[in-house]
Write a structure and sequence with these properties.
- This protein is an alpha+beta fold.
- It is built from four helices and eight strands; from the N terminus they run H-E-E-E-E-E-E-E-H-H-E-H.
- The strands form two sheets. It has a five-stranded antiparallel beta sheet, with helices on both faces. A three-stranded antiparallel beta sheet has the order 4-5-8.
- A hairpin with a 2-residue loop joins strand 4 and strand 5.
- It is globular, with a radius of gyration of 15 Å.
Amino acid sequence: MALRNVRKNGDPVLRKKAEQVNRFTPGLQQLLDDMAETMIDSEGAGLAAPQVGISKRVIVVRDEDAILELVNPVIASSKGNVVDYEGCLSFPGIYGEVSRAEHVQVTGLDREGKEVRLNAKGFLARVFQHEIDHLEGILFVDRASHILTPEELEKLREKS
């Protein structure tokens, strides 16, 4: 496993629509391993392949002590709506208020190409939506109704 560089705002790969994965190779498994290691090292909740410069439909998400891997993920259904704060490893130090579905069902494939169906709510649902947006070239700042000022961010941190 190896750490990958997280691409930052302004990198064109973040705005590209990622390509479907059709072959489940050792290279894909290495990418998933590297992405998980990079996400953990960066203290992130999720990571999409475009964030490490690979325009493929691959995400990893942290769920408590487990790492969830999805290839070609799709939000099959969603319900509810909640506005909360979001950040992104590609936008260090920037946070915004983003409206997301409260519950989602996500489908995709695992590292061997077997079908996966996951139900998520709350923060985990938010992370899935955020990472799947990356695969469409959509960034959280595009969806944010408000980007926090440094003063607002400091007040929010004081409350925590």
